[in-house]
Design brief:
This protein is of the alpha/beta class. It has three domains: about 5-190, Methylglyoxal synthase-like domain (Rossmann fold, 3-Layer(aba) Sandwich), CATH 3.40.50; about 200-350, Cytidine Deaminase, domain 2, CATH 3.40.140.20; about 375-495, AICAR transformylase, duplication domain (Cytidine Deaminase, domain 2). It is built from 18 helices and 21 strands. It has a six-stranded mixed beta sheet. It has a six-stranded mixed beta sheet with strand order 16-21-20-19-17-18. The chain has a five-stranded parallel beta sheet with strand order 3-2-1-4-5, sandwiched between helices. β20 (about 470), α18 (about 480-490) and β21 (about 495) form a beta-alpha-beta unit. The longest helix is centred in the middle third of the chain and has 26 residues, at about 165-190. It is elongated, with a radius of gyration of 29 Å.
């Protein structure tokens, strides 16, 4: 009896080439619905599953492959005499390869305009059944749920006439991970987010972990997809490269106007907004050149050739350059700096921003801090009021301080950070560090604090360096003292009513 392969896919990328190669190797191709039509269009001989089952597709395609002639052909154990006897009695022929990928429920669930009934129809039933059946019987059956594995299977078939046991076992494990993730996503969506599962997929080995003696890996959270890709990587990405790149892109994506940031150890060293993204980059680098060594550079606009040229001309040591896109000229010029990892990354959507951290043997989960603060959200608590220009810079500083580790203080002027102090155990220490880094640039700068002032000492320290206005959450039991000190020093102060902690 000849070899047979069942192909039934939603994602049809590469399926025609895969089927053609299988046919050339002597496989009979069984298929259904849209896949069958695609293969027939490519002039590849196909046997409809209906011919095998002697039963038509029904209920709008909900039932087509759930039949003993199909699942039996996948599940019966070739080395089991009783199974072989039953297969012969019931005229069930073996199916040796199963290639199935599932209805795109994840993609459909992100379309908020899709009706509930339409979303339900994207829950695959037959697909997971075929995949799990083939994966259970991986001793005899090769199962594929990812088009990326087609070429690997064809290579093994051409070389050896069959796939290796190790290959079949690995592909089966991949299937169970995929179907588990698929069910987890359905449960999460249908429960309105109350049943929050966490499935990790698409493992990516890293250069090392937080330190070179630690191993590190990256995984996608199933259902959310990978929103970034590496365009240049002479040196493999490390754990810290990804951690810093994430901090960088999330910061610049806070801004609607062209913005650049330099990030070091997940903290900003310099941030700037400007109509020209190249100038924004230069200003962000100039904000703290000393700290910007081995830096991660992030842009919220396409990276032009000009930014790359500035990195080359100024001999800037950049570990990663991350942006939503890169011009062809920029990518060509970046070949002169092959050790810079180049990452194309989309700005995150608010509804996709969930943060996970492993703690105490478990997982902490929260939605990301996407709360926006606008001019109308500010309350001035001092007798002196900030000017329109000062308010713009205060809001700029607030967006930056949200992305610096607590306790965080940011000085800014003309939409450029002038000094940043963060990660300290006292707020006044962060203020002192920000002032030291700013130097003369502190004079006339705005100051943002990610949390309330427990004492008036930070306001006094700010006044010593010429800070012109302050933005902070408010809510301290000593607010009256803090506000009184700001009034005494004639420094306008506005409060947001919300905190911006980041640990």
């Amino acid at each position: 009896m000849g070899k047979r392969a069942l192909l039934s896919v939603s994602d049809k990328s590469g399926i025609a080439d895969f089927a053609r190669a299988l046919a050339e190797l002597g496989f009979e191709i069984l298929s259904t619905g849209g896949t069958q039509k695609a293969l027939e269009k490519a002039k590849i001989p196909v046997t409809p599953v209906e011919k095998i089952t002697q039963f038509p597709e029904c209920f709008g395609g909900r039932v087509k492959t759930m039949h003993p002639a199909v699942t039996g052909g996948i599940l019966f154990r070739r080395g089991n005499a009783e199974d072989r006897k039953e297969a012969k009695e019931h005229n069930i022929a073996p199916i040796d390869i199963v290639a199935v990928n599932l209805y795109p429920f994840e993609e459909a669930s992100r379309d908020k305009t899709k009706a509930r009934e339409a979303l339900i129809e994207q829950i695959d039933i037959g697909g997971p059944t075929l995949l799990r059946s083939a994966a259970k019987n991986y001793a005899d059956v090769t199962v594929l749920c990812d088009p990326a594995d087609y070429s690997r299977v064809i290579d093994e078939l051409r070389a050896h006439g069959e796939t290796s046991p190790a290959c079949r076992a690995e592909l089966a494990a991949k299937v169970f991970a995929r179907t588990a993730a698929y069910d987890g996503i359905i449960a999460e969506v249908l429960s309105g987010g109350r049943s929050k599962g966490l499935m990790l997929t698409n493992e990516l080995a890293l250069r090392y972990g937080e330190n070179p003696h630690q191993w590190g890996k990256y995984y996608d959270v199933a259902g959310h997809g990978r929103r970034w890709e590496v365009l240049q990587e002479e040196k493999k990405m490390s754990y810290l490269n990804i951690l810093d790149a994430d901090s960088a892109i999330n910061l610049v994506c806070e801004f609607e106007e062209p913005t650049a940031a330099c990030i070091k150890h997940a903290n900003p060293s310099g941030v700037a907004s400007h109509l020209d993204i190249t100038e924004a980059f230069q200003r962000s680098f100039d904000a703290d050149r000393l700290s910007a060594f081995g830096v991660i550079v992030a842009l919220n606009r396409e990276c032009p050739k000009g930014v790359v040229q500035k990195i080359i001309d100024q001999k800037i040591f950049a570990e990663v350059l991350i942006a939503p896109s890169f011009s062809g000229e920029a990518l060509e010029l970046l070949k002169q700096k092959p050790r810079i990892r180049v990452i194309r990354c989309e700005c995150p959507r608010a509804e996709d921003l969930v943060t996970y951290r492993s703690m105490l043997g478990g997982i902490l989960v929260q939605d990301a801090d996407t709360k926006e603060v606008a001019k109308d959200n500010l309350t001035c608590v001092t007798e002196v009021k900030p000017t329109k220009q000062q308010i713009e810079d205060l809001l700029f500083a607030w967006k930056v301080v949200k992305h610096a580790k607590s306790n965080a203080i940011v000085f800014a002027k003309d939409k450029v950070s002038t000094g940043i102090g963060c990660g300290q155990t006292s707020r006044v220490d962060s203020t002192i560090i920000a002032a030291r880094r700013a130097g003369e640039k502190a004079k006339g700068s705005m100051m943002a604090s990610d949390a309330f002032f427990p004492f008036a000492d930070s306001v006094e320290e700010a006044a010593k360096h010429g800070i012109a206005a302050i933005i902070q959450p408010g809510g301290s039991i000593r607010d009256k003292e803090v506000i009184a000190k700001a009034n005494e020093l004639l420094i306008p102060m506005v409060v947001t009513g919300i905190r911006g902690f980041r640990h």
